[in-house]
Specification:
translation regulation, cell projection, 9 strands, BH3618-like
Length: about 140
């Protein structure tokens, strides 16, 4: 899915929390077929986010898009929607987290985008583990 966005400039119109002064971000896929991409600010070369396709890591990730957001995104069909989430990189990388509470929702057709904040009753957080921890070996046979 991210391959379709390679090189496109997405218009967030100030909706990324903490970066309201930045409107446009260019997508740069880390590697073809990868679930990772960089979201680079067009206005400030020092601002970039690592983003992922959440469904690779959380196959059951779901949420509703409010009608107002659908209108702002100019969404006419589900086929136009793409979702990415911002990663917080940690050391070691396997401890990195993903913000599932505030997904970035994109209209592939119009390149409009918004960061949405899910309702407080959501089961998602801002620091959900990117990688599930493997169970430790018990030593039992």
């Amino acid at each position: 899915m991210l391959d379709l966005l390679q090189g496109k400039v997405l218009r967030f119109n100030g909706s990324i929390l903490g970066f309201e002064e930045l409107d446009e971000f260019e997508v740069s896929v880390v590697e073809e077929g990868s679930p990772y991409a960089y979201l680079q600010s067009v206005q400030d070369e020092n601002i970039s986010f690592l983003v992922v396709t959440p469904f690779v890591f959380y196959p059951n990730y779901t949420f509703e898009i409010e009608d107002n957001d659908k209108s702002l995104l100019e969404l006419n069909s589900n086929e136009e929607v793409a979702v990415i989430n911002i990663v917080t990189i940690k050391e070691p990388y396997t401890k990195s987290t993903v913000n599932l509470l505030a997904p970035l929702v994109l209209n592939i057709a119009t390149e409009q985008a918004r960061q949405l904040v899910l309702p407080p009753q959501s089961t998602y957080g801002t620091n959900d583990p990117l990688f599930k921890e493997a169970p430790e070996e018990s030593g039992e046979r």
